[in-house]
Structures are given as C-alpha cells and as structure tokens.
Amino acid sequence: MKAKSVLAILAALSVGGAVIAALNRDEIALTLLKRGANQALAHPTIEGLKAGLHAGFCGTGSPMPDRDRAGPCLAIIAGGKLFVFDAGEGSAETLNLMGLPTGQVQAVFLTHFHSDHIDGLGSLGLQRWASSSATTPLPLYGPTGVEQIAAGLSQVYAQDRGYRVAHHGADIVPPAGFGFEAKAFAPPAIGAEAVVYDRDDLKIIAFGVDHRPIEPALGYRIEYGGQKIVISGDTKMCDCVTKAADGATLLVHEAIAPNLTQIMGQAAKGSGQAGVAQVFHDIENYHATPSQIADIATRAKVGGVALTHIVPALPLKGLERPFLGDATQKFKGPFWIMQDGDLVSLDRDGKLTKRRVLRD
Fold this sequence. Notes:
The chain is α/β, with parallel strands linked by helices.
C-alpha cells in the first residue's frame, strides 16, 4: 500500500475517532449534568442539617474585586431552618450552590446598610419568591432605616414583578409573596444588646458595634440548643464584641490586614489613583486585624474563630500567613480564614467541624 494511502486511512481513522470521542464526551457531560441536577435538587445540603446549629459561609468577600468570594453573607441553620445575615452581591447564587435553597430562607438580618452588605438582596428576594411560590414577603430585620431599603427594593423590581406574574402565573409566583417585609427595631448603642427574634428555641440578639462613622452598626448573637454563634458585623476592635462573645462556641469576625492593604494603597498612589489610595488608607480605622481578633477570642474564651469579609483579596495561598500575622500564636483554638462554600457545624458538646459544601 502506498504511503499516501496509509496516511489517508490513518487521517480518516483519526477524524472518526475524534468524532466518536466528542460524541462520548457530550453523552458523559449530559449524564453528569442529570446526576448533578438530581443530587442538587432532590438532596440539598440542608436536608442533612435538621438538627443542631450550623454556619454556612455564603459570602466571605468585601467590596474589593475577588473572583472567589461573594459579598458578605452568612447562613445560619438552626433546627433545619435557614436564616441569612447580610446579603452581598452573589450571595444568593452561592447559597444555592451550597445546597442551601433560597426558597427556604426564613428571614434576613442586616448588620448595617453599607452597600456591599445589601446589594444582593434583590436577587435573594426574587429567588426565594419564585423558587418557593412564597405567599408572604421575606422578613427583613434591621435597625431603623431598614424600611427604606425594603420599600426601595420593591420599587426597583416592580416592573420585573409584573413580568414574572404575567409569564409564570400567580400560582407559581403569588403577587402577595413578592418583596420584603421590614422588621425594624431600635438599634442598641455600642455595647448594649436587644433581643430581636425569639421563637422555637432560637434566640437572636443584636448588639451595637463600633464601625463609626457608620451608624448604626450591629453584630448578632445566635443562641440555639445550648450553643452560641456570634457575628461581629463590621467593626473595629471593640470590647462590645468581647462582651457579646463571652463563652460563645464560634466567633465569626470580619478581618483586615493593614500590612497588605498598605501595599495596595501604595500601588494605587503610584499609578495616579489618589482616590483609591485614600480609600485603602481610610478602611484601616474601622475594621479589626486578625491579631486583634485573636485577643478578643482569647478574652471571651470562645471555642473557635472564623474570619470573613476578607480585606484585601487573597489571590495566593501564600498570602494567608502574612494576613494572619501572629493571630494563631495568640489564640490556640481553631482560627480559620473562611472561603465561600465552607460550613461549620456545632455539636451538643460545642465541638466545631468544618467542611466544604460548595458544588462545582
């Protein structure tokens, strides 16, 4: 057989094999999609969280660009019921990817009204409404002023509401379930506390923190089944957090590393972005460092610490130690830099278990 003929046959076989491989690849991809869809929709993560107290990290980022972190969001699952604290951009999508269905959100609690903590509320409200055929608005708890946010979101999405009812029908998206119901309360002063939710053995206490000049600013303590999770909200180092976190099983605290933000600030200044450089400088005075948080955790005798609202972004694993500084030398318990998709479960004895539940 001539060499050219052999080459032609080999080429044809190669093309045919590639076509078969592509077809097999498509079939495999479709099979995986079906399997994944069945697992995600029929057996969401929340089905395994009917007992105890759990914290799901649905947004560990900040306003700074970070491909791997949604805006601030923490999911609390108590006795199988899902509550959300803050809803930054992308947080609703992350909740669903974690197997924590937005349709099951019972209520949202806001720590303060900075844009990065509320700019995912619209998506969360719409997804909860449509995916559960909700017949009542989503309760939105927050300090006085939350009424304006609830009303504003209803106005912004009013036309979209009409489109969805017209398209899907009132049985699927009941008009009465659209939007948010504001649950405003008088904000406690820095260091003071107020019970804002008390039902079915779950108690949620708001406490004032120091995020000045942003006022009001709150943290929350969640008490359920003999365990406590404390959420700092955005705050500088403050005895108010130490007091609220006394004896808590888990402290969820925002964190900033000035040694890293100063590098970013210098880069911004060097590129002629004076405004950005000033922002990097300003943010240092109303957030807490990991070292300061370790001091709080030690004094409060908490079981473990979960850092969130990470500033700045940490695109390299090697930046985690510079970010933490001496924090893990000061506090000997678990001291985690959280990622979107992490879940921390608390057992009856206060043992903390961290695992990943984010689906690719």
